[in-house]
Write a structure and sequence with these properties.
The chain contains 3 helices and 6 strands; from the N terminus they run αβαβαββββ. It has helices at about 5-10, 20-30, 40-55; strands at about 15, 30-35, 55-65, 70, 75-80, 80-90. The protein is globular, with a radius of gyration of 15 Å. The relative contact order is 0.22. The mean pLDDT is about 90.
């Protein structure tokens, strides 16, 4: 874990992704979904989750979410894209956001 800079690990995870799909995935697959920095790598995400929440991570999958196209009359714009990470925890591990660990 000391391979990564501690300050960098604090910047990798931006927020937990809370949605109906995220809670369904968390219950079914024992995964937690995070919004992460656009330049974050899988090993960085794993190290950050293990350091911040004191849990063991089994695997990490990342996904780039494209920004939606938005219109105002004739003007077409686009929202910024972002990156999310599906973090699989080892059996018996749990992150409880409500308790504020």
């Amino acid at each position: 874990m000391s391979a990564f800079n501690q300050e960098r690990l604090l910047q990798v995870l931006l927020a937990p992704q809370i949605s109906e799909k995220a809670t369904w995935v968390a219950d079914k697959n024992e995964q937690v979904i995070f919004r992460v920095a656009p330049d974050a790598t899988k090993p960085e995400v794993k190290a950050a989750v293990e350091a911040l929440f004191k849990v063991e991570v089994e695997s990490v999958q990342v996904l780039n979410v494209k920004g939606k196209e938005k219109r105002r009359g004739r003007v077409v714009g686009q929202r910024k894209g972002w990156k999310k990470a599906f973090v699989s925890l080892k059996p018996g591990q749990e992150i409880n956001f409500v308790a504020g660990e």
